[in-house]
Amino acid sequence: MAAPEEEPPAEPQLRDTPDDICLEAAANAIALHPARELLAAGDVDGDVYLYSYCCVQGENRQLWSSGHHLKSCRDVAFSRDGQRLLTVAKDKAVHVLAVEDGRLETRIAKAHGTALNCVLPVDQHLLATGDDNGELKVWDLRKGGAVLEARQHEEYISAMAVDGAGKILLTASGDGTMGVFNIKRRRFELLSEPQSGDLTSVVLLKRGKKVACGSSEGTIYLFNWNGFGATSDRFSLRAESVDCMVPITESIVCTGSLDGVIRAVNILPNRVLGCVGQHLGEPIEQLAVAPGGQLLASCAHDQKVKFWDISSLGSMVVDEYRKKKKRGGPLKALSSKAAGSGEDFFADLREEQEATAEAATGSDSDDSD
After folding, report:
1. CB 292 within 8 A of CB 55
2. Angle, CA of 23, 257 and 199, to the nearest 5°
3. Which of 83, 199, 219, 271 has the most CB atoms around its CB within 10 Å?
């Protein structure tokens, strides 16, 4: 009797984006490796995970986990060379983990007097941390101590950014101000005038000539480089909030909001380009961009990390003189997985169910949702 022929192995199924990564607890923070397809996540239980991801269905893998933090992990960031993972938590500790195996290389216990909120690698040896009381510290890992300590903000530090030369560090704070610190000279420079609402994010744009800060009230504030005292422009997204923001190109950022919608926004001219994706009804905690700018990752309260195809954003050109769309229309879908925006999402589903001729996600939008 002839043996049955073996069936050939199934062809791997390629996707536009990697599968969602499902976590055991909600992630506060995610980061994407600067050169490899690796994602780090820190969750509300204090655990830190490293995953490999790819666009082949079912091929995402958890590589290791770390439970060294005693309380909620607030932020994670890869070092510039990608060999280490920096993490901070509510337990006031800074951890430096080896990316290859998750081994704890350095622990700075009680790094601050209160819960840590964010961490930023400055260069190969320096890193900055910000806490819930508005204190900033810059650490030199070679010396094992802080080389700059400053408490200029009255509220928590939500985010930080540094210029390409590693000289000027910018901080966004819940007191509505942006802080400017000179790392090379180890000193505080100035605070901006306070804005309405908490400043939640800070990014550099236009080849470092512009700085954009997101706010809890849904406004993006713009500053000129070396004109940090007062804003040069402001742009209301008609969104519930701007809770996080990452640069995609020199002019385009993606923002995450309480309504769970990820918006692509062009800066100068100021336009909301559309919806990249959404965690339906779940506030978005953090966004991260993959090397090459083709993929965006997001985490929210739904205990999922999702990936979005943002390859179309790099070629988008916004005409300054183009007529703006009437306010109040639905957001344009900018990826195949972007179903719609906030209050328009359910309207989109109803229209699809009723087989109407035009779905809401196909509508155009310029500066509002």
Report:
1. no
2. 110
3. 199
| Amino acid making up residue 286 | Q
Question: Which segments of 7-72 are extended strands (E)?
Answer: 21-22, 27-32, 38-43, 48-52, 61-66
Calculate what percentage of the chain has a pLDDT beyond 70.
86
- Cα–Cα dist 341/319, whole Å: 23
Amino acid at 234: R
92: left (phi over 0), alpha (psi -120 to 50) or beta: left
Mean pLDDT of 221-225: 98
3-state secondary structure of 90: coil
List, in sequence order, every residue forming a beta bridge with 261; answer none if it has no partner: 278
Mean pLDDT, range 5-17, rounded to an integer = 77
Length of the chain: 369
Instruction: Assign domain 21-143 to a CATH class.
Output: mainly beta
CA distance 87 to 46: 10
CA distance 3 to 40: 47
Q: What is the DSSP letter of 14?
A: B
Helix (H) or strand (E) holding 351: helix 344-353
**pTM exceeding 0.85:** yes
Q: Contact 94/111 with Cβ under 8 angstroms?
A: yes
Whole-number pLDDT of residue 315: 87
Q: How does residue 347 score in pLDDT terms, banded at 50, 70 and 90? A: very low
Q: Are the C-beta atoms of residues 201 and 158 closer than 8 Å to each other?
A: yes
Lowest mean pLDDT among 188-202, 251-265, 343-357: 343-357
* 74-88 tens-digit pLDDT: 999 999 999 999 999
Please, what's the largest Cα pairwise distance for the chain? 86
Please report which helix (H) or strand (E) contains residue 159, including its range: strand 157-162
